[in-house]
Design goal:
- The complex is a heterotrimer of chains A (306), B (541) and C (283).
- Chain A is mostly helical and 306 residues long.
- Chain A contains 15 helices and no strands.
- Chain B folds into 2 domains: 166 residues, Alpha-Beta Complex (Dipeptide-binding Protein, domain 1), CATH 3.90.76; 219 residues, Dipeptide-binding Protein, Domain 3 (Dipeptide-binding Protein, domain 3, Roll).
- The radius of gyration of chain B is 24 Å and the shape is globular.
- The chains are: A mainly alpha (306), B alpha+beta (541), C mainly alpha (283).
- Chains in contact: A-B, A-C, B-C.
């Protein structure tokens, strides 16, 4: 186990280094000058060069990258070019909103995906099955900005059940989380259905059925426990996915998550923030995968032996 | 000597209208106002802050030697109790008010003024405003890193600040009224370092008491503010993360008092039709013009006839309609509220037929293909498409490059990249109400350099000479003469047509019925846009 | 296989999806002839005096956009953008993914490790942020947007193709071919690649919906195809701030994106059932 962990850790570090390197290069490929953006319109040439020098942007790129990695190794993500605030502080300030949205979205995904997938699997080949599967495709195919705007229009503007965007109370969370949950729920239900069908074909389920257990009991007690495995893997992936911020949903609802931070930073080429957000996202994705791999054997004894 | 005295008398008259004079209205202090913004405030460091959001907040947190009479472009004294300008226009001596306190309780001394101005110019501060102070003696040495302070700045005693210039500079008093010239206490800057922008300390009417990143800022009335009876409000709460549409609804429901991001364009028509809410809308004009630049160094815009043709091809009325009539068509670079604006000038008429004839004369009877850059934030791509259509009507096929602001600015700063740029979203807003600010960086030779803001790359030696002459007229007695010279400069520039001025956007703002104040307090062209110190709460009356 | 195809098409949902795709392709191809107006024409009477867009009905069937252009015509021409990007971008993604997947799967060893680590790396990249950064680097045009999307989407194909190729390479059947003295190009192109074709086809169909959605998202963020080229996502980008007053400007293009993506998803899924019987009925 420990050697597995060590190998996994080594791989993760190399992946993260690669991510920082690529982000770093991409940031410098944007055909605009971050210093000009900082210096503003009244700055003289000297001012621009001065700021470039102060930020260390006049050094060769490899040197800048090496310095970044060195500071990163000491836990320092640097300061925002524009706000001068520490990137860590900025990212942490976005964490509550990001985590809330993540939790809400995953909750909706599970609430939508698991029942829909279960029913479809239980009624395989029947009308309910194809009905749910078309619905799941609908969820997957709807662009989030359209779902978001429509939910806003109907539930916030017309019915006024929820606030028109913003952040704060639980009521604010419902619509953005639901928007993300609809897309994810579509995937979850498909995953749930196929995994449940697999499980239902297993011998022990047949045995349980033959013993005369009620179909519902078989489905929920024996089936669900094993069929939920891929869903756990999906949740792991989603944790990573949502940590990158849901740029679109955040922008539709004015949600102060990490996605907005990234989007704004790319607009003004605030490289330390771009680097920081990408890194946090990548760490979460790697961690999410790892988590899924760790949790799955706990749920399914069959995986423990491997 | 006699002449100096006249000058001083005039300056004294100019400065009679102290900020305190406006307090006579008998308005009571108290109450609170809630201001909404979508995005978090970037920084409140007066040496750094330079956007339309933090400008008015910084203004109300700080004091500086000079300021403007509320709602006008008229310079008045702020921290300065008195000042003199030497006859050669090179030496300014300020006497500062006694007993003025910083928010931390310490008294403001002349040395603080000197420290604060030095700080803006010091390379380590990375201030975007460095260049404004270029006429102070010692500027070059300091920028080059050879000096830690400006040789031309000194504080002979606790109440006196002396500024020595290398040459007369008519804009100096304006510069000293800019946010950048705000006086800050050294101990606070040293204590917070790079985080000073989030823990600002000044000597202005309000002090910052809370800032939860991305959520809210609270400013409380500074009880030791040196102007008696000011400001009116006890507290200003700035709420972050409110979409303009949401903010408007909240205002109508009573949760927000002032719309920081203004009225959302899509709701504008509705609000103006509403008999009650339209009363809460204040309108005014910014010192701003929206224009199309034509790069005079790139073919075929090197031909003045082509540039004139473009000026005649654009249907400005239609563009104005498209943005719900929230602007007025423009015909010259200067906005109407700027001294030097020529009311009599008619500009180029909208005349596609004549434009086509001009193109043919220039050798493009079939038109040509070119590129139009614009910023990729609504409504700019739409406006660009409207321009594109008008150009197509005279045979110019303009491909739109809708890019991020940073990319468009970078392309404009290269001599051979952007033939045409629609300035929307990045258009010049004057730093101070003086026409020189509308020439140098955006139409003068100094701006026509790599990375500069003169995207038309227009550089006319004759005009440059005239501008130099106008800038040297620092004698207030020559104000009218100077204004006439600037007027002449901008009309001459239009003869060369490096720009096609499109419109002057009007600024609309809306406030709840709970707060009130002079209309100008919500659309102040210098405070851009809110003069928080002049807004009061009705429920406190 | 043909009978399975027939059977699939007899399913009303699949048949409906196929019909819709054919319909949208027809609209896209015939747009210049069937669109009621020029999609770029900004009608003077297409805006109210206050500059607001016209509601559906009247001279403009689906109303006008914020520039006074006919929405229906823009939707019809927008179908071209979506389909073109959908097919091209996804084609490139499947191409890159297959190439790297096969290379890693067949070569194994160091090559496989390198390619797989790179794929892992790209998977750890937040996809939308990557697309936004790439779009900021290259000034967007139709082909650039397609390329950006391809550069983001290929990783999934590479993963799947790699797994299949690696499995095939180790299979007894390939061992047998190899022991008969076949050289590697022959093994690769005659015995392995044909087995990958079904997967590629499925991805080529399923991936189109992902691509269409990503294009719409980029356009929605203002970094999609260059205006005035109509794009469904772009229409929503230009109109989103007005959606409370002019909801049709979001609903119609939104529905168009949804229907197109939905149809390709259903078709791709059905195709997988047809081509890959082992997966039958499972997902």
């Amino acid at each position: 186990m420990s050697s597995f962990l060590a190998r996994r850790l080594g791989q993760s570090v190399s992946i993260l280094l690669g991510v920082t390197l690529i982000t770093f290069c991409l940031s410098f490929l944007i055909p605009a000058d971050p210093v000009r953006m900082l210096a503003g319109r009244s700055a003289t040439q000297e001012t621009v060069e001065n700021i470039r020098h102060q930020l260390g942007l006049d050094q060769p790129l490899p040197v800048q990258y090496a310095k970044y990695v060195w500071r990163l190794a000491q836990g320092d993500m640097g300061r925002s070019f524009k706000q001068k605030t520490e990137v860590t502080t900025l990212i942490l300030s976005r964490m509550p909103a990001t985590l809330q949205l993540m939790a809400g979205a995953i909750l909706f995904e599970l609430l939508i995906g698991i029942p829909a997938g279960l029913i479809a699997a239980a009624r395989r080949g029947k009308k309910a099955d194809s009905g749910f599967m078309v619905l799941s495709f609908l969820g997957v195919s709807a662009p989030q900005f359209v779902t978001g705007l429509i939910l806003l229009y109907v539930f916030a503007h017309r019915l006024q059940w929820f606030p028109l965007g913003g952040y704060g109370s639980l009521a604010h969370l419902v619509l953005p989380a639901l928007t993300l949950g609809i897309t994810g729920g579509g995937w979850y239900s498909r995953m749930m259905r196929s995994s449940m069908i697999d499980v239902l074909l297993q011998d022990y389920i047949r045995t349980a059925r033959a013993k005369g257990l009620s179909p519902l009991r078989v489905l929920l007690v024996h089936g669900l426990r094993n069929a939920v495995l891929p869903i756990i893997a999906m949740v792991g992936l989603d944790i990573g996915f949502f940590m990158a911020g849901a740029v679109v949903v955040e922008s539709v609802y004015g949600w102060p998550g990490i996605g907005q931070l990234a989007w704004q930073a790319i607009q003004v080429i605030d490289i330390p923030i771009i680097m920081g957000v990408t890194l946090v996202a990548a760490v979460s994705i790697v961690f999410g995968n790892f988590l899924a791999d760790l949790v799955m054997p706990l749920v399914d004894p069959r995986l423990r032996e491997n | 000597m006699r002449k100096t005295r006249i000058v001083l008398a005039m300056l004294a008259a100019l400065c009679l209208a102290l900020p305190a004079a406006a307090q006579a209205a008998g308005i009571k202090q108290g109450g609170k106002a809630v201001v909404s913004y979508k995005d978090d405030v970037v920084t409140l460091d007066p040496a750094i802050g330079y956007d339309w959001q933090n400008w008015s907040i910084i203004k109300s947190l700080n004091a500086r030697l000079m300021t403007y009479e509320a709602g006008t472009a008229k310079l008045v004294k702020d921290l300065a109790a008195d000042f003199t300008i030497s006859p050669d226009g090179k030496t300014y001596v300020f006497k500062i008010r006694k007993g003025v306190k910083f928010h931390n309780g310490r008294e403001v001394k002349a040395a603080d003024v000197v420290y604060s101005l030095n700080r803006v110019v010091h390379p380590k501060t990375q201030s975007p405003a460095q260049g404004f102070y270029k006429s102070i003696v010692g500027f070059d040495e300091m920028v080059a890193g050879k000096a830690e302070t400006l040789a031309g700045l000194s504080a002979p005693d606790d109440a006196t600040v002396k500024i020595v210039l290398t040459a007369p500079d008519a804009t100096m008093l304006h510069v000293l009224a800019l946010n950048f010239s705000s006086v800050v206490p050294k101990e606070a800057v040293d204590k917070w370092g790079d985080d000073f922008g989030h823990h600002p300390v000044g000597a202005g009417p309000f002090e910052l008491t809370e800032w939860s990143l991305g959520q809210r800022l609270v400013m409380k009335r500074f009880t030791n503010y040196f102007v008696p009876g000011a400001p009116y409000l006890d507290e200003i709460e700035i709420q972050i993360g409110l979409e303009p549409t949401v903010a408007l609804l909240k205002l109508q429901q009573g949760g927000v008092d002032i719309l920081g991001d203004s009225i959302p364009p899509a709701r504008f028509v509705d609000i103006m039709k509403d008999p009650e809410w339209s009363k809460q809308v204040e309108s005014g004009s910014d010192l701003q013009t929206g224009y199309i630049t034509m790069n005079v160094k790139m073919k075929p815009f090197d031909d003045v006839r082509v540039r004139k043709a473009v000026n005649m091809a654009i249907d400005k009325e239609r563009i104005v309609k498209m943005i719900n009539n929230r602007a007025k068509p423009a015909n010259q670079p200067l906005p109407p509220t700027m001294p030097g604006y020529d009311k009599a000038y008619k500009g180029y008429p909208f005349d596609p037929a004549k434009a086509k004839a001009l193109l043919a004369e220039a050798g493009f009877p079939q038109g040509f293909e070119t590129e139009l850059y614009c910023m990729n934030v609504d409504p700019n791509p739409r406006i660009a498409q409207s321009i594109q259509r008008d150009l197509a009507a005279i045979g110019i096929k303009a491909n739109i490059k809708s890019l991020s602001q940073a990319t468009v600015i970078a392309a404009g700063g290269e001599s051979d990249q952007a033939p045409m740029i629609w300035s929307g979203g990045m258009a010049w807003i004057a730093d101070f109400p003086d026409p020189s600010n509308f020439y140098g960086p955006i139409l003068g030779c100094g701006g026509a350099v790599k990375g500069g803001w003169n995207w038309a790359w227009y550089c006319n030696d004759k005009i440059e000479e005239m501008a130099r002459k106008a800038d040297a007229m620092s004698d207030p007695a020559k104000t009218a003469e100077r204004e006439a010279l600037w007027r002449d400069i901008f009309i001459k520039i239009m003869d060369d047509a490096p720009w096609c001025p499109v419109f002057n956007e009007a600024r609309f703002n809306m406030h709840s019925t709970r707060v009130a104040g002079d209309a100008k307090s919500f659309i102040d062209p210098v405070h851009i846009p809110f003069n928080y110190g002049k807004i009061y709460a009705k429920d406190a009356q | 296989m043909n009978t399975r195809l027939h059977k699939a098409l007899r399913n009303p949902v699949v048949a409906g999806a196929a019909l819709i795709v054919v319909g949208i392709v027809a609209v896209a191809l015939l747009a210049p002839w069937i669109a009621p107006h020029d999609p770029a024409e900004q009608f003077f009477d297409g805006l109210t005096l206050e500059g607001m867009p016209l509601a559906p009905g009247g001279q403009f069937l689906l109303g006008t956009d914020l520039l006074g252009r006919d929405l229906l015509s823009r939707l019809m021409f927008g179908a071209r953008t979506s389909l073109l990007i959908g097919v091209v971008a996804n084609g490139i993604a499947v191409g890159i993914g297959t190439l790297l997947g096969v290379a890693a799967g067949y070569a194994g060893g160091v090559t496989a490790t390198l390619i797989n680590r790179f794929t892992d790396l790209m998977m750890a990249f937040p996809a939308l942020l990557l697309a936004i950064a790439l779009a900021a680097i290259f000034a967007p045009s139709l082909w650039i947007v397609a390329l950006v999307i391809a550069l983001v989407n290929w990783v999934w194909v590479a993963r799947v193709i790699y797994a299949q190729t690696a499995a095939l390479r180790k299979s007894e059947f390939i061992e047998a071919v190899r022991s008969l003295g076949a050289n590697w190009p022959r093994i690769l192109f005659v015995h392995i690649v044909p087995h990958l074709v079904p997967t590629m086809l499925v991805w080529a169909t399923l991936g189109i919906s992902t691509t269409v959605l990503l294009e719409a998202t980029l356009s929605f963020l203002g970094i999609g195809v260059r205006p005035p080229t109509p794009s469904w996502g772009g229409i929503i980008f230009e109109c989103q701030s007005y959606f409370l007053d002019a909801p049709w400007l979001v609903f119609f293009p939104g529905a168009a994106i949804l229907i197109l993506a939905l149809s390709f998803n259903i078709l791709g899924d059905a195709l997988r059932d047809v081509l890959d019987p082992t997966q039958r009925g499972k997902s």
